[in-house]
Design brief:
104 residues; mainly alpha; 2 strands; 32% helix; 4% strand; globular
Amino acid sequence: MTIKWVKVDPLVMNGEPFCYGTRLTVRQLLELRRNGYTLTRILNDHPELRVMGVAFAYRYAADHRERYADFFEPDGSLSGPGYTAEEAAGLPPDLRIPGVVLAR
């Protein structure tokens, strides 16, 4: 079974894209990141999340920049701390997007 990590359902969360198995929207994750939450802190505060789910949420935001423009810096990177190289090592290459997943 393949998991669709980010889902959009008009009957759930008022149609706001959310992470599989959670009540957290992509926007909420981006707000946490912009407010300085690291991946470790996000996962500790929300144990229902998975590393892959957060990475897919960040990629979803990158693929829908017009919807999430407030969360991107002028250089195109997401605001706030991203994944460290060690945290991103286990991610598939298509999720290791510079400026979105990896911290500088």
